[in-house]
């Protein structure tokens, strides 16, 4: 099934009984604090514009109260917007009638929750095929699909266990299998791994990345953890107080933080796991010989390959193996050292 991009345009959400009455004031510049103090309404989202590429993982990141969970619930319209559009394959989800919305939720989107949201009285296989049962799919076909995805997420042998017999990581694997069994174009993952222990969390990130290489779903992943965002996101959007502060690739955000808020976020990031070889390579020199390093390889991987090969320099190559630049260990080391003397303004200007 083909994936489709999600395009969020000029999206606003004001919480309160008369949100629609105050939208023009907010658009004219009324602040979140002023709206709350004057009218007792809360500005949840303010002029959100994010294009979420088809077949890729878009991570929406922010601290508690930033609006990220509110945003993801607009994609399947669990929350009604005050103003704006949420386009899926060119169709505005916000304008769908009840029947169209039901069809969209059942067949186009699947959600993976932080607290697993498994039905305690149903076994692993029964939880996995629950969405297909709601759709009225034949039992034999549902079970076949369910068992396939249970195997893919590494839970073979646990089909007849109940949720309370599983660890947190295993329960989240069931949640992922359930979402994949529905064969939806869009996976919505709301803080899906936040309740897991760090090692299990990394393991689940690996499961998602491995599956995504094959499935190419359009994934919207919500997190408050920058390391998780950088590892998973093809594109990252950072929210603060209901507004997008910055969006782009992990490299964009680490190398050119938009303001002091983002600078504080990226300060402790392991840059070697984010910056790519092609970003810091120099021009080709001399004959095109030497250890080939993919341009998209992270500096950490490039340094490891060069060290293991006993090489201080390497060739950077494109996807077809054609040399596009040169790389030396000193350039890698320099790029991996976080700049600490720059101000946020200087970094943004660069």
List the helices and strands and how they pair.
Blueprint: E1 6-15, H1 19-27, H2 32-39, E2 42-52, E3 57-61, H3 68-75, E4 83-88, E5 91-92, H4 98-107, E6 109-113, H5 124-128, H6 130-135, H7 139-152, H8 168-181, E7 186-190, H9 198-215, E8 218-223, H10 226-232, E9 235-240, E10 243-248, H11 250-255, H12 260-266, H13 277-280, E11 292-294, H14 299-309, E12 313-317, E13 323-328, H15 329-336, H16 344-349
Parallel strand pairs: 3-8, 3-9, 6-7, 7-8, 11-12
Antiparallel strand pairs: 1-2, 1-4, 4-5, 9-10, 12-13
Helix pairs in contact: 7-8, 14-15
What is the radius of gyration? 23 Å
Number of strands: 13
| CATH-level-2 architecture of the largest domain | 3-Layer(aba) Sandwich
- Enter the CATH topology name of the largest domain: Rossmann fold
Helix proportion of residues, in percent? 40-55%
Q: What is the element string, with H for helices and E for strands?
A: EHHEEHEEHEHHHHEHEHEEHHHEHEEHH
| CATH homologous superfamily classification of the largest domain | P-loop containing nucleotide triphosphate hydrolases
Q: Would you tell me the structural class of the helices and strands?
A: alpha/beta
The first-level CATH class name of the largest domain: Alpha Beta
**Domain unit count:** 2
What share of residues are in beta strands? 15-25%
Poorly predicted regions:
340-350
Shape descriptor reads: globular
Mean pLDDT: 88
Number of helices in the DSSP assignment: 16
């Amino acid at each position: 099934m083909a994936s489709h991009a999600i395009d969020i345009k000029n999206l606003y959400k004001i919480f309160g009984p008369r949100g629609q009455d105050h939208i023009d004031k907010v658009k004219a510049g009324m602040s979140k604090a002023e709206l709350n103090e004057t009218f007792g309404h809360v500005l949840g989202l303010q002029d959100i514009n994010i294009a979420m590429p088809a077949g890729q993982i878009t991570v929406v990141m922010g601290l508690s109260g930033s609006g990220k969970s509110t945003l993801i619930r607009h994609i399947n319209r669990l929350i009604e917007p005050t103003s704006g559009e949420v386009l899926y394959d060119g169709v505005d989800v916000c304008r769908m009638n009840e029947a169209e919305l039901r069809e969209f939720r059942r067949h186009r989107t699947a959600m993976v929750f932080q607290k697993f949201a498994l039905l305690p009285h149903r076994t692993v296989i029964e939880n996995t095929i629950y969405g297909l049962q709601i759709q009225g799919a034949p039992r034999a076909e549902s079970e076949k699909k369910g068992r396939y995805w249970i195997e893919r997420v590494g839970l073979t042998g646990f089909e007849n266990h109940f949720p309370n017999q599983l660890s947190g990581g295993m329960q989240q694997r069931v949640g992922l299998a359930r979402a994949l069994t529905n064969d939806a174009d869009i996976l919505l993952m709301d803080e899906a791994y936040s309740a897991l222990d760090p090692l299990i969390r990394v393991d689940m990130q690996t499961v998602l990345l491995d599956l995504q290489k094959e499935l190419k779903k359009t994934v919207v992943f919500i997190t408050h953890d920058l390391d998780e965002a950088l590892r998973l996101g093809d594109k990252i959007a950072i929210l603060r107080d209901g507004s997008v502060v910055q969006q782009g690739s992990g490299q964009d955000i680490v190398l050119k933080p938009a303001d002091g808020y983002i600078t504080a976020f990226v300060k402790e990031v392991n840059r070697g796991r984010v910056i790519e070889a092609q970003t810091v390579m120099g021009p080709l020199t001399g004959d095109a010989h030497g250890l080939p390093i993919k341009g998209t390889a992270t500096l950490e991987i490039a340094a490891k390959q060069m060290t293991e090969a006993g090489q201080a320099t390497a060739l950077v190559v494109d996807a077809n193996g054609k040399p596009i630049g040169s790389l030396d260990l000193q350039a890698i080391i320099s790029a991996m050292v976080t700049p600490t003397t720059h101000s946020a303004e200087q970094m943004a200007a660069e």
